[in-house]
Amino acid sequence: MRMGSHVGHPLGAAFPVQTGSSSEGRPSVWDVNAAILLVEDDAGDALLVEEMLADGELDSALTWCKSLTEALTFLRGHRTPVCVLLDLHLPDVHGLRAVTQIVETTPDAAIVVLTGLAEAEAGLDAVATGAQDYLVKGRLDPQALSRAVRYALQRKQVERAAAALRANQLMAQENARLERGLLPVPLLNDDGFEAVARYEPGRAHGLLSGDFYDVVQRPDGTVHAVIGDVSGHGAAEAALGVCLRVAWRTAVLCGTDELEQLALLEEILVAERSDPHVFATVTSLVFPPGGDLVRIVRAGHPGLLLRRGTAIEWVEPEGGIALGLLPGHGQWASTDHALAPGTGLVLFTDGLFEGRTGPDSRLGEEGLLAMARARAGLPARAFVDALVAGATEGAAPYGGLADDVAVLHLGWKRTPHEH
């Protein structure tokens, strides 16, 4: 092994650490690829470490830096794992600050602190600060140094895995909280009305995004429903979606008119959004107790599917602009649509038909309608699941769904007169 003093020029054989295999023929847990960085201003101590490494089990690339400044420059430009052998007494820094600065600059680096005979306490403090191990220079031997390097690298690997696990657990908890807010249980007091809902995240293990829906039945039997989509992806959009859904439910329970509901939602969106470019599309429905019509209000949202037996058609009632595009200037209309007995309405967010089905093609609205007609005879739950499955399978070879998908299937099981 040879050692150089200029930054970023590891000399000697390429690392990997070679420590054999397990008894079952699998690679040992100590098989890692890494480089060793020695940060030491004393040439005699540096030579001692070099000789110890040469006599030990490691076949390693070693770089020697005489100051923390040189070491940090090396670490910033190094992509592979590094074990830093760190002296705490350097020309440009003294004590635990050296450990802190390396941890802040390269959190993935494993650190073994080199101390003097009378500095065991400092070694323990360094481990508490972020180092993986410490060694006393006067008691170094090749085996101890090699073992310390291997163990430090493995401990850092375990720390990273544990941190990733904690992050995943926190994400799962946050996802569950957002899910409870975005995906409520329909508030129905009439078993004659059927509401089937489905939400499908567009990214594997991704947080839910800003798609939201809700269904609420008033004491007079009127059923209100909403589906919406906040632009963008991520926790901020999901939180805004939760806010809008809760505000909508509150407005419905307070008896607010559906057009006033949209104006209220826009005010809340503008007040709560973190980016002035964020907007939301919304469709709201009102099913009066008679069961023979539905009132529809659209704000920039896609059309919907109307199911009568095995017949399915695409419906686009009169609409207005999405919420938040021109705050205070939006104009929306309420459209009455007649309903025959047994009619179902299917609402969805645009993620259902925006997935790719080819290198330069998407499912699109016509493709979704064709897919729906091919599944026309299915009951509500199976129909919704089949639509989501068809869109997901079609997009799978091209990166999966482009966006989250929310679907609502709504309708009277029988007219209110028959209760």
How would you describe the overall organization of this protein?
This protein has helices at about 45-55, 70-75, 95-105, 120-130, 140-180, 235-255, 260-270, 365-375, 380-395; strands at about 35-40, 60-65, 80-85, 90, 95, 110-115, 135, 195-200, 210-215, 225-230, 280-285, 295-300, 305-310, 310-315, 320, 335-340, 345-350, 355-360, 360, 405-410. The chain has about 425 residues and is α/β, with parallel strands linked by helices. Helix 2 (about 70-75) runs parallel beside helix 3. The radius of gyration is 32 Å and the shape is elongated. It starts with about 35 loop residues before the first strand and ends in a 7-residue tail after the last strand.
Structural class: alpha/beta
Cα distance spanning the termini = 89 Å
Question: Order of helices and strands, N to C?
Answer: EHEHEEEHEHEHEEEHHEEEEEEEEEHHE
Shape, per Cα inertia axes: elongated
- The number of helical segments is 9
Nearest-integer average pLDDT: 85
Give the amount of beta strand, in percent. Answer: 15-25%
- Roughly how many Å is the radius of gyration? 32 Å
Largest sheet: 6 strands, mixed
Helix content: 25-40%
Uncertain stretches of 5 or more adjacent residues = 1-32
How many DSSP E strands? 20
What kind of assembly state do the chains in view correspond to? single chain
What would a concise description of this structure say?
By secondary structure, the protein is an alpha/beta fold.
